[in-house]
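In line with agreed milestones, the collection of sequences with tokenised folds has grown. A representative record is reproduced below.
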Amino acid sequence: MMTMPQAIHFGTAEMINNKTKTMIIKLLQQIINTYHRGGYRIKHNLADQQFECIRKTMELQVIDTNITGRDEHVPEVKGYTITVIERAREIINTLPFEILPHQLIVKIVYNAVI
């Protein structure tokens, strides 16, 4: 899961082990807490269709959630995702290995986000 605030350009990435409602809410709450620690308040959430299940939870936290239509993406996050993928590929292409362990790929993506 990737997030990209429109105003401050501070993106985050979290690995989703399973796409259950509980896991998505837990990871999103971690991200919200990260922004709150930085002194930012989240008012709006633009999300893809897969996050429809958390709309009511976000409304309880007074966060307006706008879900995109079918086969659409949030443009800012899509652009940021492409940037992170390119950064990760640059790192991977410098490694002398053909097969990478899953955990290494996760760490490479986390590094590309920073």
Notes: The chain is about 45% helix and 10% strand. The helical segments are 21-37, 55-60, 75-93, 102-113. Residues 75-93 form the longest helix (19 residues). The two ends are 15 Å apart (CA to CA).
